[in-house]
Amino acid sequence: MSEDDAVKMIYEHQEEQQSLDTISKLEHREEHSVLEADMVKGEPLYPHEITRDSVLSLYIIALFFYLAAFIPPPLHEAADPTAGTAFPPPLPDWYLLWAFGCLKVAWDIQILIPLSSIPFLGLSDINLFLMTAKVWGTLVQGLIIGLVVAVPFLDRALGAIIDPQYGDVINRGHERRPIEDPVRAAIGVYGIALVIMLSVFSVNANIAIYYPQVDTDMLSQITLWGPIVCALLTYMFLDRRRSEGAKPLTDEERFDLYNDGIKDRRMQRIYEFKLNRCYQCGLCDDICPVRDMEGEHELNIIFNTFQNEHDGVAMWSCITCGMCTAVCPQNIEYIDYVLEQRALTTMGVSL
Amino acid sequence: MSRTKPYSRTIPHPLFERLIVEDAMNEEKETWKPERPHEYGYFPGCVDFMDVEVKFTHLNKGDADHASIAAASIKLLNYADIDPLILDMNIFKCSGHDQLWQGQLEVFDALKEHNMRRLKESGIKIITCSCAECYRTFAVDYDLPGTLGIKVEHITQTLQGRGLKFKAPEGVTVAYHDPCRLGRMMGEYEAPRELIQLVDGATMVELENNKERALCCGVSSMMYCNDATKAVRRKRLDQGTDAGIDLMLGGCPKCYMHMQCMLNEERMNPDEGHHHDYEMMDLMQFLVACLEEEN
C-alpha cells in the first residue's frame, strides 16, 4: 500500500463522515427551533405560599387586636334624635358614589306570574315576591363585580360553542387593540360611562341646589341613555377606522415612535430596528447562495444577525446579491446592514 | 485533494485597486466644460478604464473584451439617434460602487464629490450607464434625481422603444441573466427582455431561477474569488446548460467578466470535467452584433 493510497483512504473516510454528519444534522433540524423555551419553575401554592401568606395575615390581625384593645376609638357627642334631616344629604366617598347611585336609581320590581291573562280559567295572579329598590340596588353592585369575574369563563364558553374542537385554543388570545375588536371596546366604554353617570346621578340633590333646572327625571334619562349612546358612538368610530384599513407607517415613522418610547435605552440604529421585524421564517436561509455553497445548516441569517450572533453569513463572505431581501416577507434590507457594518469596520483604515 | 494547482486568486487586482484609491485622493481643482451641450450622458464605468489601462482580463489569460461593451453601447445609442456625452475616465472617476460595498467610505465620498461636481458642470439631463452597478450607485447612493435633477437610466431603458431593428445571424437560443443590482435592487426586469425579444431569429428562454430569484454571479463588488463563490457561479452556468442555450446575456459587465473567466478556466482545464458548451456575452455586445444596418 503506497502513501498515495493511504491519503486517499483517509480522505474518503473523512468525506463519508462529513456526509453522515450532515444527514444527521438535517434530520434533527426541528429540534433546534429558536422558539424553544425552558419551562419556568416556580414555588408551589401549597405549602409554600399558603404558609407564608397565613403567617403574614395572622400577624396583621394580631396587630389589629392589639390596637383595638389598647387604643380604643374615641367617642364623640351623642346623636341628637330631634335634629332635622341634613340638607344637602351627606355623601359617601367619591369612589363609592356609583354604588350610592345604584341604590338611588333602582325602582321597586314586582315579580308575579300573570295567570289572569290566561282566559277561561278565572285564576288570579300569583305574587312571587316584591323586590324593593333597596334590595336589588344592592344586588346590582354584586352583579356588576360578578360579571367582571365571569368574563374569562363566559369567553371560554362562547369559544367552545362557536368551535367545539378548538374552543380552548380560540380564547388563548383575542385582539387587544380596541380597533380590532369594536364590540368589546364598546361594552367597556358603556361600563365606564355608566359608572360616571351613576356617580353624577347620586349627587342629584346637590346639583339641584345650584342648577334647579336639572331635575331628577332628566338625570335618570341621561343615566339610562347616555352610556348607550357613548357605546354606539365608540362602535361606529372604531368600525369606520377598521374599514379604512390599517395604514402601515414608514420605517422612519416607526423608528421615531420606537425611539421616543424608549429614551432611556441605548439608541438603536435604524437597521437594527428593521431587523427587528424578522419573524424567523427562514426563507433567507433557504435562498442564500453563500449558505448553500458553504454547507452550513440551521442558520437563520437575518434573525441570527439581529441577535448579534454573526453566524448567518460572515460579513465579508456576503456577496450582497440581495436574494434574502427579494424573498423576505418583511422586506428587511439585509444588504444595507452589511454595507453599514463594512463601513464601520474599515472606518479610518481604508486609505 | 482533488486540485493540484490553486486557482483562487485575490480580486480585485491590488494594482487596480490602488490606482482607484490614488485617483480618488488626487483632488482636481480646475473646472471643465463640454464642447457643446448634450442631453444625454453615457457613463462607461470602469469598463474601459479596466480593460484599456490595466488590461485586467489579460492577467487572467481570458478573452473577455470589456472595451467593446462601451464601444457597442455608444454605437447603439448613435443608432437610436442619441448623441451622448461620453463621461469617460479622463474627466470622471470611478463611480465608487465597489469601494462603497467594500466599506471604504472615505474613498467613496471622495469619488462621489468629484463626480457630482463634474456632473454639475456637464449640464446633461439624463445619464445612462451600461453597468448595472453604476446605475444603482448613481440612482440610489448619489441620489442624482434628488440632488442634481439628473434622470438616471440603464442603457436598456434608454434603448427601449427607439425603433431599433436587430437580426440574429442564425437561430440562436439565448437566456438573460438578471444582474442583482439591476433586477433585485432597481426592479428592472422587463427592459432587457423586451430588447432581446426585438432580435429576429433569436429564441429567448428563461433560466430556472430568474427575475427576483435569479442566482448571483458570485462576485458582486469585486470582493474575492474563492471556491465558494465559484460554486455559486458554476450553479448558475449549470442552469444555462440545463436550459440548452447558446448564449447567456448579462446586463452588467461584472457578470460578464466573472462568468467568462469561469468558462475560460474550464476550457483551460478540460480534465476537471466541468464543461459548459456556450458563451457569456454582455447584452450590448450581442445587440450590436445583431444590429441591422439601414444603409
Descriptive key words:
heterodimer; A: 351 residues; mainly alpha; two-stranded antiparallel ribbon; 15 helices; B: 295 residues; alpha/beta; Rossmann fold; Glutathione S-transferase Yfyf (Class Pi), Chain A, domain 2; 2 domains; four-stranded parallel beta sheet; globular
Describe the fold and architecture.
The complex is a heterodimer of chains A (351) and B (295). With 351 residues, chain A is mostly helical. Among the domains of chain A are: 94-244, no CATH class; 253-345, no CATH class. Chain A is 58% helix and 3% strand. Chain A contains 15 helices and 2 strands. Chain A has helices at 3-27, 45-70, 97-105, 133-162, 167-170, 182-202, 204-210, 216-244, 251-261, 270-275, 283-287, 289-294, 301-306, 323-327, 334-345; strands at 109-113, 126-131. In chain A, strands 1-2 form a two-stranded antiparallel ribbon. The longest helix of chain A is centred in the middle third of the chain and has 30 residues, at 133-162. Chain A is elongated. By secondary structure, chain B is α/β, with parallel strands linked by helices. Chain B has 14 helices and 8 strands. Chain B has a 4-stranded parallel beta sheet. In chain B, helix 1 packs across helix 6. The longest helix of chain B is centred in the middle third of the chain and has 18 residues, at 105-122. Chain B is globular, with a radius of gyration of 19 Å. Chains A and B meet through helix 12, helix 14 and helix 15 of A and helix 5, helix 6 and helix 12 of B.
